[in-house]
Specification:
This protein has 273 residues and is an alpha+beta fold. Helices cover 45% and strands 17% of the residues. Strand 7 (188-191) and strand 8 form a beta hairpin. This is Aminoglycoside phosphotransferase family protein.
Amino acid sequence: MHAHAAQRATQAAMSSASMLGLSTSDAAVLQNSNKLTLRLQPCDVLAQVAPAARQCAQLEVDIAQRLFEIGSPVAALQAPEVFVWDDYVVTLWTYYEPVTSPAIPSADYAEALERLHAGMRRVDLLTPHFTDRVSEAQTLVADHDRTPNLAEADRVFLAGTLNRLRRAVSDSGRPEQLLHGEPHPGNLLSTSIGPLFIDFETCCRGPIEFDLAHAPDEVAELYPGVDHDLLRDCRTLMLAMITTWRWDRDDQFPDGHRFGIEWLSELRKATAR
């Protein structure tokens, strides 16, 4: 978020926490991209703030709450409500002091993801399909106004890649279930009680390989029952999607334009194999 929006979003977080009787005299920014993540003090609560136009906050809260109740490895909510303040939605979560030891071992990562998937098979909520997310990327590629800096040759390449891989993954015949959507290392906390997943706004239905495409290679090698040909297609599809997001004129991913260029090059190499 830009400075003015971040300031208003911070006020939204502090006001929402105050509604619960929490003391909030300070807010430290932990992450700032398309949404703002804050550590509120002295109550020591984590707040996530997004533009109100993002309508997935309630689904994220509902899924996280149900997963926590059945013992899945997920971060706990501070409050099961979604707060609306001005043009923002706010969710409040438990803050976990990060463990400064080495990175989460691949075996622990794979076990946590397998446990998460097992819990998600017990959650019965209406969620998007992974193809809905692919459709969002396809719509963005086709919209010249929203992607004005995307060269025509790159636009054609991205459109063709998204279409081909969407069909390949959809037609794989693999079982589908509720997924995290983006269980990459940035969405897995290393805490004193073990690895915990966060950020469920991207939950969708699809084959587990779609989730594993976001995890390191070593994790996928340790996860049981993986279709590695499908995983390869999912990894390439995931790369095409995140590359597309970087060309959105409204994207606020740090240094996003540079990544957009680099990932286009990587995508061409991956599709040429």
